[in-house]
Design a protein that fits this description.
The protein is α+β, with helices and mostly antiparallel strands. It has one domain. The protein contains 3 helices and 2 strands, in the order ββααα. Strands 1-2 form a two-stranded antiparallel ribbon.
Length: about 120
């Protein structure tokens, strides 16, 4: 069980055109169980991933490694697995796109055979 307090200064804009306003926020950890902390982490990770989906497309499935999201860690737009999932999903629904992907893969095979 966690105990203690942490205080942070945050800057918030009420909308994109507004000037930022600072708030001193204190988080009181007293009585937080492992389950509460996991729920908070889950919420944060899901919100982060949904932001990436909005930018890069929504995959059918996604696997998130929480340790990869430690504070201070930078992230590219999407993982190779996410990119592959998006290509597969679009290939299922768009015949012209699927044919273009097949052609690209055949060209890669031909180039690899020449090496």
């Amino acid at each position: 069980m966690l105990n203690g307090r942490e205080t942070f200064k945050v800057s918030t804009r009420t909308n994109e055109d507004a000037d930022p306003k600072e708030t001193v926020i204190t988080i009181v950890w007293d009585g937080c169980t492992d389950g509460v902390i996991r729920a908070l982490a889950r919420q944060s990770l899901i919100i982060k991933r949904q932001g990436q989906y909005r930018k890069n497309g929504v995959p059918e499935a996604d696997e998130v490694h929480a340790k990869d999201y430690a504070p201070g860690t930078r992230h590219a737009g999407m993982t190779p697995e996410q990119a592959e999932a998006l290509v597969l999903e679009k290939s299922r629904t768009d015949k012209a796109y699927r044919e273009a992907q097949i052609k690209r893969l055949q060209e890669l095979d031909a180039a690899a055979e020449q090496q």
